[in-house]
Design goal:
- The structure is a single chain.
- This protein has helices at residues 11-24, 40-44, 63-72, 89-97, 107-112, 116-125, 140-150, 173-191, 248-264, 296-303, 307-315, 395-408, 418-426, 428-431, 439-443, 446-452; strands at residues 4-7, 27-33, 47-52, 77-79, 101-102, 154-158, 168-170, 196-200, 206-214, 220-232, 235-241, 269-277, 283-289, 332-339, 341-342, 348-349, 352-353, 357-358, 365-369, 376-377, 384-392, 410-411.
- The protein has 454 residues and is α+β, with helices and mostly antiparallel strands.
- It has three domains: 4-103, Rossmann fold, CATH 3.40.50.20; 132-200, Dna Ligase, domain 1, CATH 3.30.1490.20; 206-452, ATP-grasp fold, B domain (D-amino Acid Aminotransferase, Chain A, domain 1), CATH 3.30.470.
- Strands 13-12-9-10-11-14-21-19 form an eight-stranded antiparallel β-sheet, sandwiched between helices.
- The chain is globular and about 60 Å long.
- Bound molecules: adenosine-5'-diphosphate.
- The site of adenosine-5'-diphosphate has 21 residues, from strand 8, strand 12 and strand 13.
């Protein structure tokens, strides 16, 4: 096992990794930017080190700053969290070159799965169904040609993509030209890589994902599925497990297929395979995330596995220590992403100071948040303030617990989406377990906002 881990991230995930380190009895150093000097993770850690200014380019995205911090503080491993450098094969390689361990897949594995377009082909060849689409697009004329043969509507997707950035829905050839340009420049700005591909746009699908873990000795397990269909602009807002869209037989089959395919493709460490499931129940692979997901706590609630500790142990060269038979998901869990944004004002992100803050409690309630009364939300990063997760023996009870916990959760001083969550929970489509990824964008958030304000 490692002696000391540098946590090269911020917000709630920095805190989550710190907690895993403490449980494992491993030292931890929190790396923070000047804007995060007063962050909860930095305050709670035994050691913390400033890695640069607020601008992530010069701190959380700066390999030299992070590696120097690890060396100076005597760390032997770096945990990248999610986002930032967590899936950057160049960073993983530089970390290794400095005799440090990267907590995640190796640079070679990250490189193999770096392009979404290539990963579609790779896992398609391992037997996972994919959505009809194109290879990498050369130019607009090529895009038009491919879209014609796939059939409209199509989705333009950045191959280096993430967080829904740069994706464009195109319904006609006329729309394609300008959408192509916009996607290309958004992809370049967002990921430093403007490679694009096309996928047939599937209406009314659900987002279902499979959690896997593979160690260096070829031991591989899946930890079941999560449903992330409640989205806004392709970004997840509420996640639940197991997915109400799949029968137990279907979820088992999908998880086993996903695990077989990814293990055969040489994957290692923690990973998530994302699928879209259509109204017939057919699942199509869309992408893999080679890191810990924001929504991992609901799988932890179902399985009792500390997934971040598992991830660290795998990176330290330990065997999984559990088999598939040991993974027995129980009950139902829901995660609500608590965001500092105003649903009534087009979800504008809110900066400012948190006044009073009260986290909910009771059986089956877990709050992962870096907030505290008086916390100044820096305007430089994403708007995630925390994740409220609930567990109950079944879905209806989980919904009831979710509502009770949301009522208890108090965040003063900034506008949040807490009421929006309550309105979604009370919505019949959600109660029936029938939400598709386009629901919020199609009906808009107004009915939910209005209901939440009652
Ligand atoms: P990102 O990597 O940017 O998160 P994904 O490929 O994971 O992008 O897709 C994010 C979301 O976009 C999905 O959950 C789904 O809502 C939507 N989406 C992606 N591909 C398609 C598709 N082919 N048809 C319809 N919706 C899609």
């Amino acid at each position: 096992m490692f002696t000391k881990i540098l946590i090269a991230n911020r917000g709630e995930i920095a805190l989550r990794v710190l907690r895993a380190c403490r449980t494992l009895g491993v030292g931890a150093v929190v790396a923070y930017s000047e804007a995060d000097r007063d962050s909860l993770a930095a305050q709670l850690a035994d050691e913390a080190i400033c890695i640069g200014p607020a601008d992530a380019k010069h701190s959380y995205l700066s390999a030299p700053a992070i590696i120097s911090a690890a060396v100076v503080t005597g760390c032997d491993a770096i945990h990248p969290g999610y986002g930032f450098l967590s899936e950057d094969e160049g960073f993983a390689d530089v970390v290794r070159a400095h005799d440090l361990a990267f907590i995640g897949p190796s640079a070679e594995v990250l490189e193999r799965f770096a392009s979404k377009e290539a990963t579609r082909r790779l896992l398609g060849a391992q037997g996972l169904p994919t959505i009809p689409g194109s290879g990498m697009l050369r130019d607009e004329a090529h895009a038009l040609e491919e879209a014609e043969s796939i059939g409209y509507p199509v989705l333009i997707k950045p191959s280096a993509g993430g967080g829904g950035k740069g994706m464009r829905l195109v319904r006609t050839p006329r729309e394609l030209e300008s959408a192509f340009k916009v996607s290309r420049s958004e992809a370049k700005a967002g990921f430093g890589d403007d490679a694009l591909y096309l996928e047939k746009y599937l209406d009314d699908t659900r987002h279902v994902e499979i959690q896997v873990a593979v160690d260096r000795f070829g031991n591989a397990i899946h930890m079941g599925d999560r449903d992330c269909s409640v989205q806004r602009r392709h970004q997840k807002i509420i996640e639940e497990a197991p997915s109400p869209a799949l029968s137990d037989a279907a979820r088992q089959e999908l998880a086993e297929r996903a695990l077989r395919a990814v293990a055969a493709a040489g994957y290692e460490n923690l990973g998530t395979l994302e699928f879209l499931v259509d109204s017939k129940g057919d699942a199509y692979f869309i992408e893999i995330n080679c890191r810990v997901q924001v929504e991992h706590p609901i799988t932890e609630l179902l399985t009792g596995i500390d997934m971040v500790a598992l991830q660290i142990r795998i990176a330290a060269g330990e065997p999984l220590g559990i088999t598939q038979a040991d993974v027995v998901p129980r009950g139902h869990a829901i995660e609500f992403r608590i965001l500092a944004e105003d649903p009534a004002k087009d979800f504008r992100p809110q900066a400012g100071q948190v006044g009073a803050y009260l986290a909910p409690g009771g059986p089956g309630v877990r709050m992962d948040s870096h907030m505290y009364p008086g916390y100044d939300i820096p305007p430089y990063y994403d708007s995630l303030l925390g994740k409220l997760c609930v567990w109950a023996p079944d879905r209806n009870q989980a919904i009831a617990r979710g509502d009770a916990a949301l009522r208890e959760l108090l965040v003063d001083g900034v506008v949040t989406n807490i009421d929006l969550h309550r309105a979604i929970l009370a919505n019949q489509v959600f109660i029936d377990g029938k939400v598709t990824t386009n629901l919020l964008d199609r009906v808009g958030s107004a009915p939910f906002v209005a209901a939440g304000n009652r």
